Amino acid sequence: MRDNFEFSLNSTLKHEGGWTDSSEDFPTMKGIRLTTYRQHYGKHKTKDDLRNISDKELNHIYKTGYWDKCNCDNLPAGLNYVVFDAAVNSGPSRSAKWLQKALGVERDGVIGPITLGKIKTHDLIQLIHSVCDKRLNFLHTLGNWPQFGKGWGRRIEEVRNTSITMSRVPPQKGTLAELELPRVSLKSQDQDKIEEALRLKVHELIEEIETQDHAISILRSDNDNLRQDLRRHEVKSMGAIPAKEAICLSEDPVPAMMDFDEEVEWIMGRPNFWCASIAEVLRKSGDVIGIHAEEEQAAVIYWMLCQYMTFGKEWRGITNRMLKGVDLEFSIPTPKGT
């Protein structure tokens, strides 16, 4: 998203710090090295020039040297911040390759049409996690991890959390850039008013996100119920089902304890030699059952209980139709006296 650059840059700069000059070769201001500064604005630029770099120069370097190189304008909100911050920290090519590895496409270090097209087939939150994890794994391999690892790890976790939040902000409400403090000098009381207004804005966005999440949960629940209803209709019209599916089709996720009626007593009382033939039919239908008598007995009794729990008194007729579809010579008898 094009609107996320300013917010992403401000978030990244929180981790880059101010002026450092640990050696003659690497004087740095807000994450920009002197060598990088000179590449953009000429070899005549000095350390003092870098130390007094303007916001316009800073934005230009980060925009053209990192954001644009990773095609972040065309990445989804949240993912663009993950890729951008990784590019600033480890280079645009490496950041692009982490994304491409997460997508399973050729890792050429250039985010183009193929990479962008593949993003649409992946879950955005999972992509954010994947890129962050690959970045963290890479940093673990560096020799100076013991010295800087704690700070790097904290940075990546903050990037991860911020990116997930960015990905969930409804686009019609604007961008997260609205949450930034204005870059002007403010009196204390004005600052307090703005911070209060921002807090209210954040709460408003959080409430909207929670409302959307709740609506999604309801839709998923309705969809699951519909699929279960369709499956019940299907198996009742076509035959019984494997035991591993029968429990899933019961009305409750965890079935309540059934009554110990005559039907259950009959099922539970099947001896192992009686279960052997049914076990063989179930194997033909795809069930994996051990070869020992007690394994066959346990599998068959469990399977019959599942059918009974799912279909009630109709279970014999439905089950026999399925069994005859596999072995025409076999069916479950009706208990004597019923």
3D architecture notes:
The protein has 338 residues and is an all-alpha fold. It has three domains: 2-171, Up-down Bundle (Chitosanase, subunit A, domain 1), CATH 1.20.141; 189-238; 243-326, no CATH class. Helix content is 64%, strand content 2%. The protein contains 15 helices and three strands. The chain has helices spanning 5-16, 34-41, 47-51, 55-67, 79-90, 92-103, 113-119, 124-140, 145-168, 188-238, 243-246, 262-268, 272-284, 293-311, 315-326; strands at residues 19-20, 28-29, 32-33. Strands 1-2-3 form a three-stranded antiparallel sheet. Helix 12 (262-268) runs antiparallel to helix 14 (293-311) and helix 14 packs across helix 15 (315-326). The longest helix is centred in the middle third of the chain and has 51 residues, at 188-238. It is elongated, with a radius of gyration of 31 Å.
What's the count of strands? Answer: 3
Q: Specify the oligomeric state.
A: single chain
Q: What is the number of independent domains?
A: 3
Strand order of the largest sheet: 1-2-3
User: How much beta, percentage-wise?
Assistant: under 5%
Name the helix and strand elements from N-terminus to C-terminus, one letter apiece: HEEEHHHHHHHHHHHHHH
Distance between the termini: 70 Å
CATH superfamily of the largest domain: Chitosanase, subunit A, domain 1
Helix content: 55-70%
How is the CATH topology of the largest domain named? Answer: Chitosanase, subunit A, domain 1
Judging by the overall fold, what is the CATH architecture of the largest domain? Up-down Bundle
**CATH structural class of the largest domain:** Mainly Alpha
Largest sheet: 3 strands, antiparallel
- SSE-based structural type: mainly alpha
Question: What Rg, in angstroms, do the CA atoms define?
Answer: 31 Å
